[in-house]
Amino acid sequence: MLRLDVLPASRLSQLAGDERDTILGGACFSHPARVPDATDLPLLNVDMAVLHGEETLCEIWHSNEPLQSGQSGAIRYRQGDTLLFGRVSLDENTEHSSDDARSPLQATTEAAYQSIFELLDTLGYPSILRVWNYFPAINRESHAMERYRQFNTGRQAAFLAKGRAVIGNVPAACALGSAGGGLQIAFLATRATMISIENPRQVSAYHYPRQYGLRSPTFARAGLVRLGGHDILFISGTASIVGHQTLHHGDVVAQTQECLHNITAIVAEANRQAPGADFRLERLAYKVYVRHSEDLDAVRREIAHAIGDPVSIVFLQADVCRADLQVEIEASGGHAIGSR
Ligand code: 3EB
Description:
Elements: E1 2-8, H1 9-12, H2 18-21, E2 23-30, E3 43-47, E4 49-50, E5 57-63, E6 68-72, E7 75-79, E8 83-90, H3 104-123, E9 127-136, E10 141-142, E11 145-146, H4 147-161, E12 172-178, E13 183-190, E14 194-197, E15 222-227, E16 230-238, E17 241-242, E18 245-246, H5 252-273, E19 285-290, H6 296-307, E20 312-317, E21 327-333, E22 336-337
Parallel strand pairs: 1-22, 2-3, 9-12, 19-20
Antiparallel strand pairs: 1-5, 2-5, 4-20, 6-7, 7-8, 8-13, 9-13, 10-11, 14-15, 15-16, 16-21, 17-18, 19-21
Bound molecules: 3-(2-carboxyethyl)benzoic acid (3EB).
């Protein structure tokens, strides 16, 4: 039903026939960003360095449903009977006029999410399973507010404007600082029923206290969906946060361990909600965002120590959405992983 393949852009451009027709969409990472030769597909090109190997690395989602491609404004998408993958990439200044009280990033975020919701409402994919958000200088302050908080304000405003819940049943997500480019968002939506999962070790992000911004981040710790008889789990970007507080300032090893404790707790929660699923840490596909590239070996060693050699793992250099966080880990499982 759903398959994740992580491959270099050079191999992506060689895919043909059925191997290409089954592509729903995905994201490619390199620094600087290079456009892979697949312009009709909804692929994000993120300016983000891959920390192992030289090549542009692409995370490609495949589906065995019959698929068709479409475009609506700035959104490119591909859809099947139950799944839709879309991507939008916006320059921060296009949605902003000089008399706007909102910052350019806030206005652009709000416009991007509103257009995503309009598309999904029109095409009838009510639930968003997973959103990937990337934009530059995530920790920089401008317009008297950190840019991550500007993003949160625009995101929440769009959810509210389109009548969507901002607590409870919200998508799994991540938000990371890229090295350049505009606001880039990829999303996976479904007609199937999804369940949002929270982590008992953490305050839900939508209930964070005001010290982290007046508008809370709109995301769940994970999303669970049943597709084609399989339970599929999307774990949001997970950091060294317990309760609502960052733990282990300046200690990337301890932060990595705390991320993995949180992921372990989310997996346990998912197994409780989907008793037949049997999600296991070593069977998940991981994406690890490391703020300082020199921490790669320490982070990698900690992950190997805790979960051995996972079936799929990618290390990227990215800024994490709190200045005191040095690492963030996301994961997914229950779907097929690898080439067919
Ligand atoms: C956190 O737990 C760390 O704003 O969409 C993780 C996952 C984080 C998603 C988002 C932010 C987001 O608060 C940051």
